[in-house]
Specification:
Elements (H helix, E strand, L loop, with lengths): L1 H23 L6 H27 L7 H21 L6 H12 L4 H11 L1 H26 L3 H30 L1
């Protein structure tokens, strides 16, 4: 059914382009086709919107995605903070790998539910610092692999600030929605 809707949408858009081209070239326009294409396009857009709403409300992570994501951020923050304060030894890289494998949240799993529940602006306020933290963590892991442990530890320490910022943004959203 999705393929048919998409085809109808594409055909409707093509008809609209043809109609607009004819109108722009001062060729007499057939208003029946124009009205029909507008009606079809409106119906298809409405159906797509309805399907998207259905997907958003049936998301498996829709129940409190913010709380779960915050919990994961707090967990990784504590573990990385511990690793960044420990002395560097030969197990340092392995500790980082285990943290990444076990606790690093995939924000994509929560994206749709968080946008649906809190809006794109709030999602962006959380995801930007998280993306910076994730980049620094990945850089820290990469430098640890290459044997530059002090540089790795510096990157991991810097990532903590951005994880904390994401957590603070989550707290602001919670307060804003409760107040």
């Amino acid at each position: 059914m999705k393929i048919n809707k998409n085809r109808i949408l594409i055909i409707s858009i093509a008809i609209m382009v043809v109609v607009a081209t004819l109108a722009a070239s001062h060729t007499p326009i057939n208003w029946n086709y124009f009205i029909l294409s507008v009606v079809i396009l409106t119906i298809v857009i409405w159906l797509q919107k309805r399907d998207l709403k259905k997907i958003l409300t049936e998301s498996e992570n829709n129940g409190l995605p913010l709380n779960k994501f915050e919990e994961l951020l707090n967990t990784i923050l504590l573990k990385l903070d511990e690793v960044s304060k420990n002395e560097i030894d030969e197990k340092y890289s392995n500790k980082l790998f285990s943290i990444m494998d076990e606790t690093m949240p995939d924000i994509d799993e929560y994206r749709i539910a968080m946008i649906n529940q809190y809006g794109i602006t709030n999602y962006t306020q959380i995801s930007i610092p998280f993306a910076k933290a994730e980049r620094l963590i990945n850089r820290g892991v990469s430098t640890a692999i290459d044997g530059y442990y002090e540089e790795s530890q510096k990157n991991i320490s810097n990532s903590l600030e951005f994880l904390e910022l994401s957590i603070k943004e989550i707290e602001k959203i919670k307060v804003g929605n409760n107040g």
